[in-house]
Design a protein that fits this description.
By secondary structure, the protein is of the alpha+beta class. The chain is 29% helix and 19% strand.
Length: 272
């Protein structure tokens, strides 16, 4: 596995030889990326001028090249949702990965939790290879991901655990996989039509109509009526502050304990 600096340097060398018209050997391509070059036995090393030119290209021309000149091996340590996970490289660098070209339902959408479980079953705790496509605005590495011979992105679409993300689609074969999953009602396609909402549309609706924040209700104080008395505590006669409170407790709070003989006069010791 080659680090980014090494890849950039080799890419710069290839560009120099192309510009000089002296490239006589084929570059061996690693699907979608320039990584290693096959050199003939009679290939001559570059001189100092070539090295300076390579350095110049590395800093200028290569600055605008796509991030796709790289692949990374890592072990998956966490699953965020159906299309995002975290992994650790051999150097213990943590990488946050967004599966490219597909879009799984958000966790709050129907099938969101099951999509997360589907991705977990494919990659969690396993060594994967990231075939890098881009870096998104959230700093996530966008990639096609493989586990052995399994294309994880394609498998998520094939099993109905994700939509094809048409806004970022490069591999149109994913559309065929989605069509078959839909035909056989796999995963999200087994849901009622009303629940088959593409995540991009769902997110757009959430931004347009955000759910208002719930303001916690303040505790409602017990009703305070005449004289400042209330019914929060049902009192005995010994607890009464006055006859007026005793009458309030009897008539408003319906406290039968303070009118033992039922004559309508509460706490007769203080209400004679």
């Amino acid at each position: 596995m080659h680090n980014t600096a090494e890849i950039a340097g080799k890419t710069a060398v290839l560009i120099i030889k192309k510009l000089a018209g002296a490239l006589t050997y084929p570059a061996r391509l690693r699907r979608g990326s320039l990584t290693v070059f096959d050199q003939p036995a009679n290939f001559a090393p570059f001189n100092r001028t070539d090295a300076h030119a390579a350095l110049f290209l590395d800093r200028s021309t290569l600055h605008g090249l796509p991030v796709a000149a790289e692949s990374i091996d890592c072990r998956v340590i966490g699953i965020a949702d159906g299309d995002t996970f975290s992994c650790l490289t051999a150097h213990k660098d943590q990488v946050r990965v967004r599966l490219g070209e597909i879009d799984a339902p958000e966790l709050k959408q129907p099938y969101g939790s099951r999509a997360r479980q589907a991705l977990s079953g494919l990659v969690f705790g396993k060594d994967v290879t990231l075939h890098i496509q881009d870096l998104d605005r959230y700093g996530r590495t966008v990639a096609r991901v493989t586990v052995g011979n399994t294309d994880v992105n394609a498998e998520m679409v094939r099993t109905g655990a994700a939509w094809v993300y048409r806004d970022y689609l490069k591999d149109r074969s994913l559309l065929n996989l989605e069509a078959v999953a839909k035909e056989f009602k796999r995963g999200i396609w087994s849901l009622p039509k009303s629940e088959q909402e593409a995540p991009s549309e769902w997110r757009k609706a959430q931004r347009s109509n955000p759910v208002p924040k719930t303001v916690p209700k303040r505790p409602v104080p017990a009703a305070t009526l005449q004289g400042g008395f209330n019914c929060s505590v049902i009192k005995s006669c010994r607890q009464m502050s006055s006859c007026a409170e005793a009458r309030f407790q009897l008539r408003t709070c319906r406290n039968p304990r303070i009118d033992g003989d039922g004559d309508g006069i509460p706490c007769e010791a203080i209400c004679r």
